[in-house]
Amino acid sequence: MSIAARAPRGALSPDLFDVSPESIAAHLEDAAHYPGGHADAVARPRTETDVAAVLADGRSVLAVGAQSSLTGGATPSGAIVLSTARLTAIETPVDGLVKVGAGVVLATLLEDLSRHGVDFPPVPTFLGATVGGIVATNAAGAATFKYGTTREWIDGLTVVFAGGDVIDIRRGDHILDDSWTFVIDGPAGSRVVPVPTYVMPDVVKRSAGYHAAPGMDLVDLFIGAEGTLGIITAAVLRLQAARAGLCYALVPLVDEPRALALVAELRDASRETWRSGDAAGIDVAAIEHMDGRSLQILAEDGADRKYEVTWPASAGLLLLIQLELPLLTQEQAYEQISAALDEDAPDTPLARFCRVLDRHGVLDDTELALPGDRRRAEQLLGVREAVPAGVNARVGRAKRDIDARIAKTAADMVVPFEQFGEMMDIYRAGFARRGLDVATWGHVSDGNVHPNVLPRSYEDVEAGKAAILEFGVEVARLGGCPLAEHGVGRHPVKQALLRQLYGETGIDQMRAVKRALDPQGQLAPGVLFS
Question: What pTM did the predictor assign?
Fold first, then answer.
């Protein structure tokens, strides 16, 4: 069965292209500090017709949102940068769904949804990202432990192809059959799209090339494709009712084994709550991890003072736990905390959580942001965000002051949680053998953290790349995925990890998908494939 594409809709904007040096310069680098960005013009479409006009120009096109990519995937390599900044429509939510433009910023989306009493829970940690960006990379984040990745919450997409025609697809309408092909007919002709036959790692996070699986939905082909198959102009998102109460706990621990013991107990308790529906059960959505080097960065940058947090000198790492609670007042929360260790304490989720912390010897040192205390929640979240911000600033300074070839050098790998400790041992040994300075943070509840090299020279960058390629083999051996949530982009190490994962045959199968939908290689050149 073929799928019908259509002509683009909307008026052509008179101010579509901007060739001013200032505008171009503002779009030449993403968060990865990937070198060599260059472009001829910036296009800012408002309509599908605008997007089609940009593509009709014939030059290569890179669609970007917030340019928060950590892989160089939003750094242009020439021709036209297509900014989604004007594709910002948000329709009124209906029946648990909402259609939004690709350029909608996540913070804006969540604020708008809150007025309707609904939520889009799988948002990644960085709320400055755009909807188009998170779809393009199948973004994930802290709350993937409970809510999964972006993929599970996308009900439909509007995609403009390189030929200028448009497809509207809804989940469930177009399912892969035994031919392992999708056929798309439209004004630009017929396209037969062969789906790859490689087996993707079976882990909670995966942003590793084109999605492929028996019986897959056509929607999933474009999620995580990093803008190489078509330009996403809008997405239909699945929603849930707004969460009643969120509590954040910043927990210092002496060492990693004790931290993993706490995480394991909270993971198990939460899964049992979801299974049983126990109203008094612990319900953790996310657990973040910041290692000892990350704590040093926080202190060096004054983040502990800025966000008014403290931790014992004995702390070897911090956990940031996101606990979901029934609706309660701060007064009720304080009462439950103060009575949690009493023999006749009320049986509530917060009291159970406190007792778990107490069993692990960390209750007294835990900093809490109780439901409704927005200021304190922002402070604790600010601590978490200050770690990657501090690392990125150091990479930027090293690039400026030491060697212009320096770029962000980091791993983004995931393993089953049961293998997490072994993965961390592999990381430490591999980096230590090369004499590298590394800070590691991320989403321990998913088995996914991000070791980042703090480069003192370009040689450190090269040594870090070698280490990451070594880790990719080991992570695959542990049943994990070496490309978890940031995608592949233009980074040569990420592209090498993709080749390691699927082999040259798998890369050739992805190239066949690309040729079917973008035969001239116009979209996102250099992304995924060199």
Answer: 0.92
